[in-house]
Specification:
The protein is an alpha/beta fold. The protein is about 30% helix and about 25% strand. The strands form four sheets. The chain has a five-stranded mixed beta sheet with strand order 12-11-13-10-14, with helices on both faces. It has a three-stranded antiparallel beta sheet with strand order 1-2-3, with helices on one face. The chain has a three-stranded parallel beta sheet with strand order 8-4-9, with helices on both faces. Strand 6 and strand 7 (about 80-85) form a beta hairpin. It is elongated, with a radius of gyration of 19 Å. The model is unreliable at about 1-20 and about 25-40 (pLDDT under 50).
């Protein structure tokens, strides 16, 4: 269940593809601060032919991202560059198509709306694939992740995820974990117990800080995020219970851009097949939940 994530800045994505339109150059920074050998993702002409003309001509996808969910996607120390394992994966997938990405930080709840309106060509932001979202947009799967609860070291409130009525629980708003908490709280009320005091925050980092400080009793997020919080707080956060309800992450694309979604699926599949996908996840310590096959609008439970 557990994994290990590298600290921020140990790996950075360099958008060298701006200078090399048919390749993406990824550089890794070792523990001693020296750059590791670069990994280059070459464009595949056959895959590039799958890209609709309007996107092929511009060569750039405008991608909405909520850069507040480390280590999946977050701002680097310069406060501007979006980094994360989801970012590296999508950069590499579209590099196979001969494209580059313009990452546009946005509010999480506004990304799918922005994709539908055409403000963004795609959205990548740790989106869990579910039937409700696929009614709104195409989703291209690339990794499987579940939900994990966590609390202060030693779990001083004795939090049991299966008995959280009356507890103060922090979560990033509009996530599947937010919906999970609302359902659990309703169950508490139906059972004649106190509701969960749901503390919904704009960002996961804010939610985690309230748990670390003891303001809230516990929190829940995707497993990689929970592990990252534990490591970044030097163990002041600990995982409680087991991961559950694992489901794929998916990149989102407008229903009207099915050909683009199919091309992105092919790009993900290409990096899975040539080993780039595994190299990226290994670098980030996020190999748990890796997939062999990317799917467009996969079958998932409700």
């Amino acid at each position: 269940m557990t994994g290990h994530f590298r600290t921020p800045r140990s790996r950075a994505t360099t958008v060298a593809a701006l200078a090399l339109p048919t390749a993406l150059l990824l550089t890794a920074c070792g523990a001693d601060g020296e750059d590791a050998p670069a990994e280059e993702v070459e464009a595949d002409e056959e895959l590039a032919d799958l890209v609709p003309e309007e996107f092929a001509e511009s060569g750039v996808l405008r991608v909405g991202v909520n850069a507040e969910y480390p280590p999946g996607e977050y701002l680097d120390t310069d406060g501007q560059t979006v980094v994360g394992f989801n970012v590296d994966l999508f950069d590499s997938a579209v590099a196979k198509l001969g494209l580059t990405n313009e990452w546009v930080p946005a509010e999480f709840e506004g990304i799918i709306v922005g994709v539908q309106s055409g403000e963004y060509d795609a959205g990548v932001s740790s989106f869990t694939v579910n039937a409700e979202r696929m009614e709104e947009v195409h989703m291209v799967s690339y990794l499987t992740v579940g939900t994990q609860w966590f609390a202060q070291e030693g779990n001083p409130q004795g939090v049991d995820p299966e008995s959280a009525c009356g507890l103060a629980v922090a979560v990033e708003q509009h996530t599947v974990q937010h919906e999970d908490l609302e359902e659990r709280s309703e169950a508490c009320v139906d059972a004649g117990e106190e509701p969960i005091d749901i503390q919904a925050h704009d960002s996961q980092e804010q939610a985690t800080a309230t748990i670390q400080s003891g303001v809230n009793d516990a929190g829940l997020a995707d497993l990689p995020v929970a592990i990252y919080a534990m490591e970044q707080t030097d163990g002041e956060i600990e995982l409680i219970g087991d991961m559950y309800e694992d489901a794929p992450y998916g990149a989102v694309v407008n229903h009207e851009n099915t050909e683009l979604a199919e091309a992105i699926q092919a790009g993900y599949q290409a990096i899975m097949d040539d080993g780039t996908y595994e190299e990226i996840l290994t670098e980030w310590g996020a190999t748990e939940g890796s997939l062999d096959t990317s799917e467009l609008d996969p079958l998932v439970g409700e």
